[in-house]
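Module 6 notes. Inverse folding takes a fixed backbone as the condition and produces residue identities as the prediction. Think of it as a translation problem where the source language is geometry and the target language is the twenty amino acids. Below is one complete input and output pair. Work through it position by position during the lab.
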């Protein structure tokens, strides 16, 4: 079914779109252009939406804005924004009254004319997704990247060809209502995350499982063998299950042995690349590449894999080298919005770093991060709402003897300047917050861009 045909099927329906953000705006515009009765609901008021509110009204949208935007939802079809969980009481009541609940991404799965490769996991999703797309493009394939990153894909579906490939990153918020799975699914890892949103670990795990559980027997799913939970999930895969492992040998998939990454199939293995040749630092990026290689098996050559490992520069805000000043290297890892992600950032370097951390916590424990900071950080600069929580986790960690020194700074810019002033030639200053950005920024990208600007202005 084409997207245009999908829209035709909605013309006699009353459609409500929850959230006028980046992912839903092209959908709203397409609905209105097709003459569909469309109501847009958003927590922000007219002032908060600014020019977007006036524009949507000029296109014919009805708006319900402000704190009561979810009251008495009355529609045939409701498109939810990923951050609004289907367990919200207002959505439950709307479904009871007969509304069909869906999302932009679910609709894309219905109309996409080509194969889909999708990536999920607690960490590593964006980099792995980007590597897969890069591999395909270097091989000469047309690859569309989207989902949690890139441009929304639904309204571009009619321009895609059957031989193209859509490579998408999917969060648990997107997956929780999915009832279709991609041709190739990648599950990078699993650890506690988003427990400020999900009802618990069981709900979080069940949402992630939707990336592969609806596959056909001819489909493929890739699992992290080194992660106990994802390894156990492989037995649920309806189709082919492959593993990637940095620590063990695998019988089918991709593994690391004596510094060389191998593709393994039918008991035979073939070298792809040296781990030391991967341009972006960190063992977690070795794992991201192995996951991507397993996903691209049969689609790209090993020569393309090796070249991409040597040349792929990484993704913005993910251990991104921003600047070297007076022999000090500044890295932006603003994407690290959880303790496990920050730990991966710290482990990417073979020396102790000056760490800038803090923000809004997700209800996760900082205990493991506290122990990691003692081992891998020479100076800790904390800022944001969770600063005291992280400080306590470090001070209460076994073996803490006052090192590293902990400095608390209320202002983010002052925190960055404090870290820069303390740094000496050869040092690394790393922004890896271990928290969300929502105490003072709209998103992690804005936080990362602000860090880049501050570092760029240092004299």
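Target side of the pair, the amino acids:
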């Amino acid at each position: 079914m084409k997207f245009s045909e999908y829209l035709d099927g909605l013309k006699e329906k009353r459609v409500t779109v929850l959230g006028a953000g980046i992912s839903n705006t092209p959908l709203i515009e397409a609905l209105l252009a097709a003459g569909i009765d469309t109501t847009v609901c958003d927590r922000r008021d007219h002032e908060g939406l600014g020019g977007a509110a006036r524009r949507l009204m000029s296109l014919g949208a009805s708006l319900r804005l402000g704190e009561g935007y979810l009251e008495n939802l009355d529609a045939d079809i409701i498109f939810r924004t990923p951050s609004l969980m289907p367990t919200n009481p207002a959505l439950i009541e709307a479904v009871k009254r007969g509304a069909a609940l869906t999302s932009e991404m679910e609709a894309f799965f219905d109309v996409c004319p080509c194969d889909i490769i999708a990536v999920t996991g607690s960490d590593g999703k964006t980099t792995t997704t980007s590597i897969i797309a890069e591999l395909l493009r270097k091989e000469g394939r047309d690859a569309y990247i989207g989902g949690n990153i890139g441009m929304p894909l639904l309204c571009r579906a009619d321009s895609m060809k059957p031989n193209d490939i859509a490579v998408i990153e999917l969060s648990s918020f997107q997956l929780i209502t999915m009832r279709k799975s991609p041709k190739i699914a990648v599950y990078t890892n699993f650890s506690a995350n988003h427990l400020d949103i999900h009802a618990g670990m069981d709900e979080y795990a069940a949402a992630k499982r939707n990336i592969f559980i609806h596959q056909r027997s001819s489909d493929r799913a890739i699992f992290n063998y080194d992660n106990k939970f994802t390894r156990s999930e492989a037995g649920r895969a309806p189709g082919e299950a492959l593993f990637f492992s940095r620590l063990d040998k695998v019988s089918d998939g991709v593994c690391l042995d004596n510094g060389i990454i191998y593709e393994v199939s039918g008991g035979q293995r073939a070298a792809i690349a040296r781990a030391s040749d991967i341009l972006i630092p960190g063992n977690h990026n070795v794992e991201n590449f192995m996951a991507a290689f397993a996903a691209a098996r049969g689609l790209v050559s090993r020569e393309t894999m090796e070249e991409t490992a040597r040349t792929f520069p990484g993704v913005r805000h993910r251990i991104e080298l921003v600047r070297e000043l007076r022999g000090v290297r500044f890295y932006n890892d603003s994407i690290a919005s959880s303790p496990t992600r920050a730990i991966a950032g710290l482990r990417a370097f073979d020396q102790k770093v000056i760490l800038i951390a803090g923000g809004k916590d997700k209800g996760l424990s900082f205990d493991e991060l506290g122990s990691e900071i003692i081992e891998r950080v020479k100076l800790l600069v904390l800022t944001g709402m969770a600063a005291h929580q992280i400080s306590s986790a470090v001070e209460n960690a076994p073996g803490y003897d006052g090192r590293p020194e902990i400095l608390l700074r209320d202002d983010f810019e002052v925190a960055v300047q404090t870290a820069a002033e303390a740094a000496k030639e050869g040092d690394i200053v790393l922004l890896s917050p271990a928290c969300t950005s929502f105490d003072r920024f709209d998103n992690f990208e804005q936080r990362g861009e602000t860090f880049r600007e501050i570092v760029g202005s240092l004299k």
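Reference fact for the lab report: The longest helix spans residues 125-138.
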